[in-house]
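Re: export button greyed out
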Amino acid sequence: MSGGYPVSARVDRHVDWIRTVVPRTPFGCEECLPIGTRWVHLRLCLTCGHVGCCDSSAMRHAREHAGELGHPIVSSMERGEDWRWCYVDEAFA
Ligand SMILES: [Zn+2]
Ligand SMILES: [Zn+2]
Ligand SMILES: [Zn+2]
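Workaround output, generated via the alternate export path:
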């Protein structure tokens, strides 16, 4: 992904990817659960409902999911946190 994107435009160009999703695995990272890896925080893919672990976790499955499927935006699943992150722009969305 590339292109001359003005940094000043604060509406993320990937918001079109956001759908109404239900967490596929509300209790933990979809990839960590079967192999027993621990995660730090959980991120919810706002395109398909994939639940993955954050960049502070060992496996970084949320980032991996975004890279593999091209789903750019996640939200935090941590209680009390209400923000979205775009893995393409590496910025809050
Ligand atoms: Zn973006
Ligand atoms: Zn994971
Ligand atoms: Zn996804």
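Residues 45, 47-48, 50, 65, 69, 71 surround zinc ion (ligand 3) (CB under 6 Å). The button fix ships in the next patch.
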